[in-house]
Amino acid sequence: MVALAFLLGACRTAAPPPRPARVPDPLPAPAAALTEAQRTAIYRALAAAERGDGEAARRELRRLPGDHPAVRLTALEVRFLLGERVGDEVKRLAEEQVDYLPLLGFAAQSLQAEGRYGEALMPARRVLQAGGNGAASRQVRELESLVIGGKAAEARAALQAGDAARAITIASDALSLVPGAVSLLEVLVSAHLAEGNLPAAARLVPSLPDDAEGLALKGKVAVAGQQWDVAAEMFARLPADYPGRCALLADARRRGRLAQAPPYVQKALSSESLTRAELAALVVWEAPAVVEGARGAVSVFEDIVNLSERRDVVTVVRAGVMDGDSVIRRFYPHRRVRSRDLVEVAERLAMVVGRSRPEWCGETRSSGCVEAPGEVVTGSVASALLRQVAAGGDDKCP
Predict the structure, then answer these.
(1) What is the 3-state secondary structure (H, E, C) of the chain?
(2) How far apart are CA 110 and CA 18, in angstroms?
């Protein structure tokens, strides 16, 4: 019985240590073959490191030839398992031993553990190309996802901070690692637009998918290129719940219409001190439905005969939105528009087009109230106010 117990104990003592579970198995390795005792010492060192026994791991390593590739890898793996950062050293060793797959796998693992996802991609891909298994494929996909997500977020943060050049550098470098990554392309297009580099943004547009972000960016590139019809088409295809869809679509349609507007309308829109003739032109421009309400008598004003806006003046007077002096036949087209004049015109316009009378914002402000214009009325202020009144607060966006 004693002899049997001794033999069983000897067998247990002689049992080989397990292969490593948390790092790649360094064996087999290039260069001269190791003895069975040396192979066992490698596994013992790694097993000790995996259970946190650094002293035992280093004791096993001292029994090994330190210049052997497998031993060099084992030493790095031991240090890694004991919590050290070894990424740089592993990279250098991998550059020497370019065909040593366990080393490449460990290079990817250690660099990934240090958050150096882009650097980890190359050795991970080499393992996969050399016939790596499903685990190698999963690691490559994971690293690509980490590169894309991390760099896209970093580039967006730079862009939001106003540093478009840095955003371009970050996104471009990441795309060199993961070509075609949509989120990186999106932030790169946005950064080029922020820099005013339309050709660079336009070159990337064909690579964007027709999802919500892709359509929005395609539309914004079209806006930058003053391709209003294309922009409106892209924005119209956005999901109904896309933030700001209606505003983007309305602006593109408005700009497209403005590009075809008569010069006198464009002049009125840019006026720094609006005249009555210019206001008449803006009323018809912003509320075309006013034409249907122009059923009053035709007034003849002698002071508008040579004006580009004469037809619009007649329209707004017939509709009752504006008036002139029918006795002396004067419209006073060059008189400057004051704040109260615009308020009165806006209220009349609302009635003519069948909208609610504007609720002007006073000391007690309510949601939906309309801000009254300042004393000096500009074309842009009048245009925005008339458009708001004519829409009646509706948010129609087909």
Answers:
(1) CHHHHHHHHHHHHHCCCCCCCCCCCCCCCCCCCCCHHHHHHHHHHHHHHHCCCHHHHHHHHCCCCCCCHHHHHHHHHHHHHCCCCCHHHHHHHHHHCCCCHHHHHHHHHHHHHCCCHHHHHHHHHHHHHCCCCHHHHHHHHHHHHHHHHHHHHHHHHHHHCCCHHHHHHHHHHHHHHCCCCHHHHHHHHHHHHHHCCHHHHHHHHHHCCCCHHHHHHHHHHHHHCCCHHHHHHHHHCCCCCCCCHHHHHHHHHHHHHHHCCCHHHHHHHCCCCCEHHHHHHHHHHHCHHHHHHCCCCCCCCHHHCCCCCHHHHHHHHHHCCCCCECCCCECCCCCECCHHHHHHHHHHHHHHCCCCCCCECCCCCCCCCECCCCCCCCHHHHHHHHHHHHHCCCCCCC
(2) 21
Question: Looking at domain 160-259, which of 2.30.30.40, 3.90.1150.10, 1.10.3720.10, 1.25.40.10 is its CATH number?
Answer: 1.25.40.10
**What whole-number distance in Å separates Cα of residue 141 and Cα of residue 124?**
10
How many angstroms separate the CA atoms of 309 and 280, rounded? 7
Lowest mean pLDDT among 28-32, 233-237, 361-365: 361-365
pTM passes above 0.85: no
Peptide bond into 26 cis (omega under 30): no
The crossing angle, in degrees rounded to 10, of helices 36-50 and 54-61 is 160
Handedness of CA 311, 312, 317, 319 (dihedral sign): positive
pLDDT band at residue 397 under the 50/70/90 scheme: low
Q: What pLDDT is attached to residue 396?
A: 59
From the centroid of its chain, how far is CA 218? Answer: 12
Structure tokens at 308: 């580009």
CA 157 vs CA 31, 154, 204, 368: distances in Å: 48, 5, 21, 34
Please indicate whether residue 365 or residue 304 has the higher confidence score (pLDDT).
304
Domain boundaries, the chain: 16-132, 160-259, 263-391
What is the rounded distance in angstroms from the CA atom of residue 290 to the CA atom of residue 306? 23
Query: Does residue 5 register a pLDDT over 90?
Result: no
Distances (CA, A) of 169 to 156, 184, 188, 221: 12, 11, 9, 20
